[in-house]
Amino acid sequence: MTDHQRRVDEAIELTREEEYLRALTIFLDAYGAEDASSPLILSKTAKSASGLSYFGLCLMLVQKKTKQAIELCKRAIELEFYDGNHYANLARVYIAAGNRKKALETLQQGEKEHPDDEALLRVRRQLGVRSTPPVPFLDRSNPINVTLGQSRHAKKVAQREGKKK
User: Fold this and answer.
1) 55 near 16, Cβ under 8 Å?
2) pTM (whole model) above 0.85
3) Cα gap 118→105, rounded to integer Å
4) Phi then psi dihedrals of residue 33, to 5 deg
5) What is the rounded CA–CA span in Å between residue 123 and residue 129?
6) Could you state, in order of their start, the residue ranges of all structural domains in the chain?
7) Do the Cβ atoms of 17 and 57 come closer than 8 Å?
């Protein structure tokens, strides 16, 4: 194993331990470039899709570089579509970007390929399931649905608090 691959593996492990800043520092050092979408990085990581995937996740969580993070995670999926971690990381990037719909689409795509993948299931649980809007024929963002939904949520919270006492 080369020194480069050893550093990438270390950064991946740090990412899994949620040490995103330290991992990003190692990724940037290992790839030797500030621009994550540079041809240099894409050529150096052609053999390490995991490096791309976790590097993209760190870029999003630390530096909020959404476009580059998505590109890196998608490239990892192109290289290794059979690894559920890449789909999970892309979904986490979308979640961090506030794009719940894209995150859900990515998870569904990953679950088609890997129905029992633990990483995908963990992100799916993190994302949660939304309940049906109170008035289903209106859009979720309609003020009526927003108000009724907030009221329904407050009622559920109050009921939970009542059970704890």
Assistant:
1) no
2) no
3) 17
4) -155, 150
5) 12
6) 3-129, 131-165
7) no
- Please tell me the distance from the alpha carbon of residue 63 to that of residue 55, in angstroms, as a whole number: 11
Nearest to 61 by CA among 89, 100, 99: 89
Residue 163's pLDDT is 76
CATH T-level topology, domain 3-129: 1.25.40
| Residue 142 in tokens | 């309609």
Q: 159 falls in which pLDDT band (50, 70, 90)?
A: confident
Residue type, 143: P
CA pseudo-torsion sign 110, 111, 116, 120: positive
Q: Distance between alpha carbon 38 and the CA centroid of its chain, in Å? A: 21
Per-residue pLDDT tens for 13-65? 999 999 999 999 999 988 875 555 554 455 444 457 889 999 999 999 999 99
- Please provide the size of the chain in residues: 165
Q: What is the mean pLDDT of residues 113-142?
A: 87
CB atoms within 10 A of CB 119: 19
The answer to whether 91 and 75 are in contact (CB under 8 A) is no
Asked if 15 and 52 touch (Cβ cutoff 8 Å), the reply is: no
Q: Which two tokens stand for residue 19?
A: 């040490």
